[in-house]
Specification:
The protein is an alpha/beta fold. The chain contains 20 helices and eight strands. Helix 3 packs antiparallel against helix 5 (70-85). Residues 432-443 have low confidence and may be disordered. Part of the signal recognition particle protein translocation system, which is composed of SRP and FtsY.
């Protein structure tokens, strides 16, 4: 996410920190590099121009140039301006005071609208709501079936009418169905087109007038860059949107759409799609996103993901096992599964402050390695997981065959596990802090 832009901005800041005392010329040269980085990231030209002017004006002030840490103050100004650019504060979903909310999902075909409708329903269900999905895309083949499938995946109901060709009627009938089934949230999945045309807009206006939605949410693909911004501008002008859901943000290395859309349309990004799984929809926090872009990590989101993924009771049991040195391969597998729930490795690492990844990092290889470890442990018997010392040559061959790996892979895992246990033993020693340097078995 934004890796290309993030790397360039961090390089600019590194140069500033290296200078110590800054002059007005230093700041203006740095801002030229920031400007170029933003333009290369496909950020709207007018947005870039305003951003650079605002930062420069604040950064060349006497209180910055005369301070003890001018570089840090300049970075803080860039951060604050970027937070404003991304929307300022987080824009929450508006719920109707009546207790019955209607959300109308709109967007072009291929933006991920139907899947996002299901993800939003799943997110609201976790918050204690009882959502209903309504299938109003009567044109795209299999669109209704797709919505029914995503509804099933997140465990919510879906209203579908395979006989009607009237999207307005389906929307109204869906709302009545929701009321009679005690749903308090209705999410309407509308039709999209490959491009914006009047026929599409007229149908969406008719649905809007008929159901009077609490909010109209536009779904756009972050990877289309400025095209996404143009789409948002057009939908807002004709339909009047309340917020934006940006999909495929995890695959967007540039970030132009996210950094431009609020300034151009005046409408906030409310949610971000950060993966293919049904739980991969997150509230959009401008401050956290700015922190990630500038290489400062995102500890709050990392903590929230950990709290969602990690079972507290299991964590306490694991702590006891570690202290008493009873940690087994079964516990190791359990921890691996909980870490995987937090999301892809690339996403987790991007949230850790201070980690700067240069160039192309093969996260896919890391993901494959985790899958390989899981397969090897799953191919063991319960006795083998509890006591790996019983795993002899014939057992290793059987485990390798069962997991689709090699005996060398099995040996490597067993060695890593033993190294880990030795390291944990050192940490559990109350006197380890008194030692000058701990010699880890793998160093």
């Amino acid at each position: 996410m934004f890796s290309s832009l993030s790397e360039k901005l961090q390089d600019v800041f590194k140069k500033l920190r290296g200078k110590g005392k800054l002059t007005e010329k230093d700041i203006k040269e740095a801002m030229k590099e920031v400007k170029l980085a933003l333009l290369e990231a496909d950020v709207n030209y007018k947005v870039v121009k305003d951003f650079i002017n605002n930062v420069t004006q604040k950064a060349v002030g006497e209180e910055v140039l005369e301070s003890l840490t001018p570089a840090q103050q300049v970075i803080k100004i860039v951060y604050d301006e970027m937070v404003n650019l991304l929307g300022g504060s987080d824009a929450k979903l508006t719920f109707s005071p009546s207790g019955f909310s209607i959300y109308m999902m709109v967007g072009l075909q291929g933006s991920g609208k139907t899947t996002t409708a299901g993800k939003l329903a799943g997110l609201l269900k976790k918050q204690g709501k009882n959502p209903l999905l309504v299938a109003c895309d009567i044109y795209r083949p299999a669109a209704i079936k797709q919505l029914e499938v995503v509804a099933q995946k997140v465990g919510v109901k879906c209203y579908a009418d395979y006989t009607s060709q009237d999207a307005v009627k389906i929307a109204k009938d869906g709302i009545e169905f929701a009321k009679s089934n005690r749903s308090d949230v209705v999410i309407i999945d509308t039709a999209g087109r490959l491009h914006i045309n009047q026929e599409l807009m007229d149908e969406l206006k008719n649905i809007k007038n008929a159901v009077k939605p609490t909010e109209i949410l536009l779904v756009v693909d972050a990877m289309t860059g400025q095209d996404a911004v143009n789409v948002a501008e057009a939908f807002n002008a004709q339909l009047g949107i309340d917020g934006i859901i940006m999909t495929k943000l995890d695959g967007d290395t540039r970030g132009g759409a996210a950094l431009s859309v609020k300034a151009i349309t005046g409408k906030p990004i409310k949610f971000a799609g950060v993966g293919e799984k049904m739980e991969d929809l997150e509230p959009f926090y401008p401050d956290r996103m700015a922190s990630r872009i500038l290489g400062m990590g995102d500890i709050l989101t990392l903590i929230e993901k950990a709290q969602e993924a990690i079972d507290q009771k299991k964590a306490e049991e694991l702590e006891k096992k570690l202290r008493s040195m009873q940690f087994t391969l079964e516990d190791f597998l359990d921890q691996l599964k909980q870490i995987k729930k937090m999301g892809p490795l690339s996403q987790i690492i991007s949230m850790i402050p201070g980690i700067k990844l240069k160039g192309d990092v093969d996260f896919d290889a890391g993901e494959k390695e985790l899958k390989k470890i899981e397969a090897i442990i799953n191919s063991m018997t319960r006795e083998e997981r509890q006591d790996p010392s019983i795993i002899n040559s014939s057992r290793k061959r059987r485990i390798a065959m069962g997991s689709g790996t090699t005996v060398q892979d099995v040996n490597r895992l067993l060695k890593q596990f033993e190294d880990m246990k030795r390291m944990m033993k050192q940490f559990s020693n109350p006197n380890f802090a008194k030692k000058g340097k701990i010699k880890f078995p793998f160093m």
